[in-house]
Amino acid sequence: MFTPRLLLPLALLCVFAGQSLALDKVTFATDWRAQAAHGGFYQAVADGTYARHGLEVSILQGGPQVNTAALLPAGRVDFLMTGNLLHGFDGVKNGLPNVVVAAIFQKDPQALFAHPGQGYEDFARLKDAPVAFIAKAAQFSWWQWLKSAHGFSDERLKPYNYNLGPFLRNPASIQQGYAIAEAIYIKDQGGFEPVVHLLADHGYTTYSTLITTRRDLVEKQADLVQRFVDASIEGWVSYLYGDRRQANALMLADNPEMSEAELEAAVALMKSMGIVDSGDTLALGIGAMSAARVEDFHARMVEAGLYKAGEVDLTKVADYRFVNRKAGLERKRNLVADATTAAQQSH
Known about the structure:
By secondary structure, the chain is of the alpha/beta class.
């Protein structure tokens, strides 16, 4: 198992050493190895945002040998990054003490990819592809929604083992992947720009990259939860719109398999697709959530057969008091204005 690596820079610790208020130690576990989809959290460490909110944050990476999801209910971490609302629904269904407190991604990056020039620029044509490379876990989650909502079928399924080779060799095939990851790898390995269909743009309405904690922490230390959420949101604003070089350096140290170019390409895709900052976040701030949208997504999953009506108590899935407070909006305006001014001066 990976051990948490304290990411708070020594210089920042020195700044706060003389203050009477000690920093609250917090451990945040991600769902995979460091990547641009985690950038705002690393940014909040790198630029001292967590420290300014009175927090000393350790980031524990997920990975193929690390089951970080089990650490939150066991009390071994304070906050957990979870992939989408299905995890929240399953947690409530299984009686876990977990609760979602912020949705960093307004759009799930899950996507279907196709080769250009095969007629798959039309999303409706994807269901006719002779081969669909889809991972087993996905076949029992969002693939069921694609079947019920868009008429996909199991007959053409082939397992996706996170190897692009079979897809690249078969121009008529389609494949699953993350719009902010596999799109980059397909271009690098295949030498072409893939056709990308973001499921979020076709009715898959889940939030993604959720900040999840335990109900006891929400009930007993709501101030700490608020500070972690606010600082994380500010970190994401700075990562998307400010200088992210220090955050990238921390992520590359944690995950040397990444490259600076991959990180920057992923950020460009997150911004162009509105993965983080779109819809409600434009007025309410990054992390925004609504009960109506959670209910809507749940209803779609019930229709897809993933849950029975009334099986999940939706009032226990998320706590909305920590978001929709316009956190980070002023910081975003300033960063965007600075970038605009710098661009004008460069010309």
